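#onboarding

Welcome to the new folks! Below is a worked example of what a typical request in this channel looks like: someone posts a single protein sequence, and someone else replies with the predicted structure as tokens. Don't worry about understanding the tokens yet, we'll cover that in week two.

Example request:
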Amino acid sequence: MPQLRSRLVVGAAALAVAATGVTILMPMGTASAARLEATCANTLDDAKTLQGPRSTPPRTGTRSSSRAPAWSTRRSACLAAAPSAATPRRGTVIKQADGANLPALLASEGWVKNFDTSDDTLRVERLTIDGNRDANTGTVALMLRSWNARIYDIDVYGAPSDGIRISNPSKDGVMLRNTMVNSVISDVYIAGAVEAGLRVVDPGNSVTDWTFQRSWIGFSGTHAIQSDNAAGWTFSDLHLYATPKHAIDAHRCFGTSIHNNYIEDFGAESKANETYYGIRCDLQGEANTTITANRIHKFLPPPNGLQELTKAWKLRAAPPERRRDTAAGPLPADVDFVYLALDGVNYGTGHAAVTGNTILGHGTKRETGLLFTKGDGEGQAMSVVSTANLVDNVGTPRRIGPGVRLRRSY
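Example response:
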């Protein structure tokens, strides 16, 4: 059971000009606490409006202030507001000011203050976070360092770094002594991040047993999902598209489930002599991993897709429809594409079931549908069931390395 400490769970909001990079935003309250509300006018006085007297709840904002609010009481279960005619996007909108270059636009208190234990329960919902990537650098839109967190129904756009990052190290590199588990991210839309859409940073072994589901990640600068530690994680019902590098890059898979995801494309940057993966997973011993019912393609994102997305965002409109004649084309001859890979075992015997996935390629020799290899370590092995997978129009449908045993399915 994670260790708990009696402290607030808070976040950090954007500043126009500030001596410190982050400030406290939103404490999590008890289930029966009242919702905080504020109305902003997009002026420098918004900070006072959001701050409010500490003895009474502030009012919920529909636009971000250019100065940082700070609340110290545990009152609210979430940060939310109904859309208005002037702000058609749902919920509160927090936008980073030009040139703020914050390390994180919203962040858990423990990350900001370098605690060595994870924060208590955090809930964020019905919130739009605009990182303002065109006028800032290096900012993570939402930085999480809380256990039992619930992140629902948020939009994350234009993060100058990762869209959402879950981090074991704090702002100044303090590592956790406990775990950060039992959390859910659901029904979110992450678009136009300069780096990864969702990033898990865990040099230790604290960020395990999360669920990321029913969400969309598009036009990230690197990966859609990049995870140092996928132990106990479930990645399900995701639509990942316009991805320059790997769609799902999951390391230390241990009791991991990757299920029912639509990977529209991956490897869009296509650098010579590089290998790109639709789903990539290396295994730990002692537990089973399942990779099931995923649909993996290698469509080509339109060259002006990010510009179209940015324009649609500013107009509060849906992105243009993608057409088949702009989503297909020849692949480069000097790049390798692997649609689904178990490409390593870190210790012991890795166990995995890979079933019911569908892969559709372009018929080139440098495309591999399924890759199973234990890596170069001594003493490791891999035990895999690979069945009922459809692999069409791929140069190498399945490649199996030494030390990998295909097991009979029942």
